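Attaching the record inline, Q. Sequence:
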Amino acid sequence: MKTIKIPFYTSTMDLHVDEKNLKAVLSAKMHDLKTDSSEEQLILDALANPIGTPRLCELARGKKRVTLVTSDHTRAVPSKITLPILLAEIRKGSPDADITILIGTGLHRPTTEEEQRRMFGDSIVDHEKIAINDAYNPEQFVSVCTLPSGARFQVNRLAAECDLLVTEGFVEPHFFAGFSGGRKSILPGISSQQTVNENHCYHAIANPYSQTGILEHNPVHEDMVVAARAVHTAFILNVALDGEKKVIAAFAGDLEQAHAEGVAFIRKLSQCPSVTGDIVVTSNGGYPLDQNLYQSPKAGATAEACAGEDGVIIMCCSCVDGMGGTHFEKLMKMGTPAELEAYLSTLPSDETIPEQWCAQIYARILKKHKVILVTTYMSPEEVRSANMIPAKDPDEALAIAYQLKGKDASVVVIPDGVSVLAVKPE
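Structure, as predicted:
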């Protein structure tokens, strides 16, 4: 019997699989990567050697209003480490700069003060100017341009009207934007709900290039790059993280060049051949990404790449915040996966419903696969209302899966489904 630890909320759950059933365990290599440098030193070195731009302190010279975009409570950006270093670098070039830290929420709920203190530390919350993007407040936004897809780009005025725009984030595989980081700080991070909705419309998500690991010809990514360039994003700091959310590499400088180096680094460590199983067990990487069901199709999309014809997917996601957004919840409960997909396919891009893209991806998965959701926070009734099968722990979920696929079913385990880029062998 093999015991495999599956990330779940702020800890792990144990999965026990008979070795005769276990076909493969897929993990990203970054979880085993060790570096001799501290997290702080990796960031300092990246800022001292920017890719494609002068140093940030040089860019900051003479700048009066600086906006520094960071991520919200759903992302594991190590801002307690990165923000003090970035702020010091900006002030090295412009000691009297008026700096606003703008939290890029996309369409997520506002980040609470308690979450800010956990993410940034008390000193930053108590002494720095912090603003939270509210995608639903038209007064926060200015119109900039039309994006390649035809989407209207409206961005937070704090980014459009500043003298220097800087962003921070982290790079990992993303289930329809190809990879996170870089340009995503702007779109969806600090864009209006109209812009996010149009960029994430049904036809964009259904495009065959809108997949994990794909950037070229990806319409979602292409819109994002144009948007970030349109507001003159001057400098980015993106990090790569291991399984413990520790910094293992940092990339700073030009919006596209620095992000491309981060993507190449992550691709090399995360990409592995897909292995087909009758049952695929995965997680959304634990906290903060497994906070709700809305965030969790990231893991489902990875498992989908390894699930055999009508294979069973087991997703271990705490869903401590329940379903997630109200629009998403309503869509997930509206009917069968086929009915949901058919409905979404009729919506023009400018009538896209907030949060529909995750429901769309669930519908795609659920049309082909039974999904068992391991959660200790959502009730069984809630799980069933989303067309999923509830289980309280991985072993119970596996027992249910064996009932569906037979006691000799092959099992593939992807402990952290967000960090793995599974590709079909050529």
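The chain has a mean pLDDT of 96. The chain is about 35% helix and 25% strand.

More tomorrow.
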